[in-house]
């Protein structure tokens, strides 16, 4: 396996989000699919079943991309980073309370986590493994 930063971050984040998604279903078994409130994971992150499904999908995409190759991992990291950024921005307005628009049961800790994940994934996705073209020789 190459030591591509995009591949490594994709595999690490993919594994973490996949495990969180699976584990989340155990603690949200009595929670509605799009409930605006749910139980807390490690006392911080609020979850519902849709939120768990989102974690599973993101985890699978990042993990498969990270295992594929650097170019695919770069695209996945950048794309998922952008999705996390959008979720975090929306979360600023809908998180907490019993807001009916909050179908992911987001709270302040989730918003901070998604902003941090977005920054890391976008920084690696955009900044790592850039192709530098050599100047053309004069003819």
- Gyration radius over CA: 17 Å
Assign a percent range to the helix content: 55-70%
Strand-residue proportion: under 5%
Strand segment tally: 2
The biggest beta sheet is recorded as: 2 strands, antiparallel
Mean pLDDT: 91
Distance between the termini: 40 Å
Structure, described:
- A two-stranded antiparallel sheet has the order 1-2.
- Helix 1 runs antiparallel to helix 2 and helix 1 (5-27) packs across helix 3.
- It has helices at residues 5-27, 49-68, 70-94, 108-127, and strands at residues 40-41, 45-46.
- It has 4 helices and 2 strands.
- The model has no long low-confidence stretch (mean pLDDT 91).
- The protein is 63% helix and 3% strand.
What does this entry show, briefly?
The protein is mainly alpha-helical and 139 residues long. It is built from 4 helices and 2 strands, in the order αββααα. A two-stranded antiparallel sheet has the order 1-2.
What features would you highlight for this structure?
single chain, 139 residues, 3% strand, mainly alpha, two-stranded antiparallel sheet
């Amino acid at each position: 396996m190459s030591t591509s930063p995009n591949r490594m971050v994709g595999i690490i984040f993919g594994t973490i989000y996949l495990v969180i998604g699976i584990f989340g279903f155990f603690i949200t078994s009595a929670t509605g699919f799009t409930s605006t409130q749910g139980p807390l994971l490690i006392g911080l992150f609020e979850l519902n079943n849709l939120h768990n499904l989102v974690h599973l999908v993101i985890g699978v995409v990042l993990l498969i991309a990270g295992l594929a190759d650097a170019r695919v991992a770069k695209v996945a990291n950048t794309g998922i980073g952008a999705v996390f950024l959008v979720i975090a921005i929306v979360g600023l307005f809908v998180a907490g309370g019993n807001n009916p628009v909050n179908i992911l049961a987001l709270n302040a800790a989730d918003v901070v986590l998604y902003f941090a994940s977005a920054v890391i994934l976008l920084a690696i996705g955009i900044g790592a493994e850039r192709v530098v073209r050599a100047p053309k020789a004069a003819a």
